[in-house]
Each structure stands twice: as structure tokens, then as C-alpha cells.
DNA sequence: CGGTAGGGATAGGGTTCT
DNA sequence: TAGAACCCTATCCCTACC
């Protein structure tokens, strides 16, 4: 019969994350065509990439797609839930040789569930985006309740201070010193 | 909390086997939607069907799922093992009113473990399939050692002679006079 | 037609119950 | 302890919509 099920290797996963970081989400065919990632992902289709990204993303934030749907169904309460912090999927790690200078404040891990939402919002926009875009993304996708805004705002400021995010003219982007990894 | 464990009735089991014979394995939602079987199986989900089929199939071939895993772990040796013949699950019985003429050679039971693998291979392909497909299925799923090929080949020829299998243009299918039953 | 998004189905590992 | 029934979720498939 067909293939018995092709499990993703961590190499493939890393390539996918790097591809999303470079081209943005929803650019699956573009990522596949990029020789930087296409070679690693040559046995995957654009749809495979989409599915895997959905799985990675939703797993990091909710633990599973099923739980994500349940969370969506509930009253707009627990957007990012508490037991999501001990996942490793959508995390960001420092690259060996970054071009910029060291941050004034050292980063102290680990990343929180708020961080992960912020990363997803920024990554998804593909361009440096302002605070309002980040909020809109979060509200559109996670039905976060109002009193959850403060911790997110605090993390946004913190991540900027430690150099994980770079803020230019009120717009945020992820530092090139960091990239998604397993 | 949930349901107290709903044991499968033999009616349900028969319906499942007939459904697999008609639609092939892996078509659980289709089987459920087929009014011919859906009414009997109305308290079962597609996943239930899949799980039950796994139990039936693997039990017939190995005695249990655990033994099946062990068999897989061993060196590609004992694909179908010896103590599988005294099971009743994946057997085939003659239907009362078959459309075709009686076979030149009467069938003498019982079915062997080789037969069961052949049935599974053909059933799984959903279409009449040639000898090569059957071998590929067997090798993919049971890691049969080469010197086991002969008994399977002999049974394939025998089952064709007695009319359990029908061979057309080098392709085999199960006779409509026969169906899986408990 | 090719591509993406999203819902939904399947495969296979794991867990619970008996 | 084994086996049957059931759960979990990564992967894969289908369809609507550009």
C-alpha cells in the first residue's frame, strides 16, 4: 500500500521552522523552492509543510489540536493555558554567530506561553509589525481575555530589552540572532 | 465515567468484516455510512471500527497485538507463526447462494495462516491485485523470510483452484461466494 | 490548474478495564 | 498477565476557495 507514515525528522522540523522565519507562514511552496530548505524537505509537499506547521504551532500553545479546539469553544478565557510552558516546539534559540552586539540585559529563559504567542504573531506577519498588529493577531487567534493583556505586554517589553526582539520605529521583529529550533 | 466498555457482538463483527470486504481496509467512515452495515454498527465510531479490525486481524495472524510487535522486532524471520491456525477471526466462509459455478476441485479446510495473510493482502488492496502486489504487501507488513515464500505461493495456487480466489488476467480477487465471518 | 486553509479521517502508539 | 476496548495525536486526505 502507500507509505506507512513518514515521521518528521528533527532536521526537517528545523528546516521548516527556519523556512517560516525567512518567508513567513503560508508560503509553503516558496519554502520548498528555497534551495536552503528544499533539499532537506525534498520528500515533503507544500501541504505537508502546512500540516506540520499547524501541528508544531498548536502543540506548543495548547498541547494538541484537539485541546486547541476545545479551548476555542470555551468562553473566551484560557487562550494560552498554564501547562503549555514545558513544551519545546515553538521555542527560539540563540544562533552561534549573530551580527548584532550583545544585549544590555542578558536573557533568562525559559520562554513563556506569552512569548510563544508573540513569536507566532510576529512570525506570521512576515514584516516587522507594531504593537497593534500583535494584539489584533492574538485576539483573532486566541480569544484572550482582557486581563491577560498585561503579561503579554510585559513580555513584549522584556523580550525587547534582552535583545530577542528588535524594536525599530515602533515595529517589532525577531532578532536574527535567534531562530526557531527543536 | 465514560461508557462501561461496549463489547462487540458477533453481528457487529460480521458487519465489519463484510464492510471491509466491500470497501477495503482503511475505509471506516465509508463502511459506517453504508446503510448495509451502518445500521448494525450505529453505536460504533470509525475509530472503533479501525481498532476492532486491528484486534481481529492481528489476533488471527499472531494471537495478539503484543506478539505481533515482538514478531516485528525479531530478525525478519517468523512473520506468520505456527500457532496462528487455531484462531477463527479472519476466516472465510461460503455464502449460501453464489452466482458462479462450483469449482473443479472442492475446497478442503481449514484455512492456514498463509491463507489469512493472502486474504488480508487482497482485501487490503480493494482491487484485484497481481502476485507482485501480494508479495509486496506481505513483505511490508510481515517481514516474512524468503524460504516462507513457497508455502504462500502454493496456497495461492490452491485457493485459486478451489474457487476461493478468482484469477483474471494475472490478478487475484476473493470469490463473491465467500466472505469473512466469525 | 496550482496553492492555501481548514475540517476531517486514518494509523499506530499508548492506556484502561476486565 | 493477556487481550479487548478505548484514548491520543502525528500524519495524511479532501474540499472550498481563491
List the helices and strands and how they pair.
2 copies of one chain form a homodimer.
Chain A: H1 10-23, H2 28-33, H3 35-38, H4 46-62, H5 65-73, E1 92-94, H6 113-125, E2 129-130, H7 131-142, H8 149-161, E3 165-168, E4 171-174, E5 178-180
Antiparallel strand pairs in A: 1-5, 2-4, 3-4
The structure holds a DNA duplex (18 and 18 nucleotides).
Short description:
The structure is a homodimer of 182-residue chains. Chain A is mostly helical.
Structural commentary:
The structure is a homodimer. With about 180 residues, the first copy, chain A, is mainly α. Chain A is built from 8 helices and 5 strands, in the order αααααβαβααβββ. A 3-stranded antiparallel beta sheet of chain A has the order 2-4-3. In chain A, strands 1-5 form a two-stranded antiparallel sheet. In chain A, β3 and β4 (about 170-175) form a beta hairpin. The longest helix of chain A has 17 residues, at about 45-60. Residues about 75-105 of chain A have low confidence and may be disordered. At the A-B interface, loops of A face loops of B. Chain B binds a DNA duplex (18 and 18 nucleotides) through α4.
Amino acid at each position: 500500500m502507500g507509505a506507512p507514515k513518514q515521521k518528521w525528522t528533527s532536521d526537517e522540523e528545523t528546516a521548516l521552522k527556519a523556512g517560516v522565519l525567512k518567508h513567513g507562514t503560508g508560503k509553503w511552496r516558496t519554502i520548498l523552492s528555497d534551495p536552503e530548505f528544499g533539499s532537506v524537505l525534498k520528500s515533503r509537499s507544500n501541504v505537508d509543510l502546512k500540516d506540520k506547521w499547524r501541528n508544531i504551532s498548536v502543540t506548543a500553545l495548547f498541547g494538541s489540536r484537539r485541546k486547541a479546539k476545545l479551548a476555542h469553544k470555551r468562553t473566551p478565557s484560557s487562550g494560552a493555558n498554564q501547562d503549555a510552558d514545558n513544551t519545546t516546539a515553538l521555542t527560539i534559540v540563540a544562533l552561534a554567530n549573530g551580527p548584532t552586539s550583545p544585549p544590555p540585559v542578558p536573557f533568562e529563559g525559559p520562554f513563556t506561553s506569552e512569548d510563544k504567542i508573540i513569536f507566532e504573531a510576529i512570525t506570521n506577519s512576515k514584516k516587522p509589525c507594531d504593537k497593534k498588529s500583535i494584539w489584533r493577531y492574538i485576539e483573532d487567534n486566541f480569544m484572550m481575555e482582557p486581563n491577560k493583556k498585561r503579561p503579554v505586554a510585559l513580555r513584549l517589553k522584556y523580550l525587547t530589552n534582552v535583545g530577542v526582539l528588535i524594536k525599530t520605529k515602533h515595529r517589532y521583529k525577531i532578532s536574527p540572532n535567534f531562530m526557531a529550533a527543536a
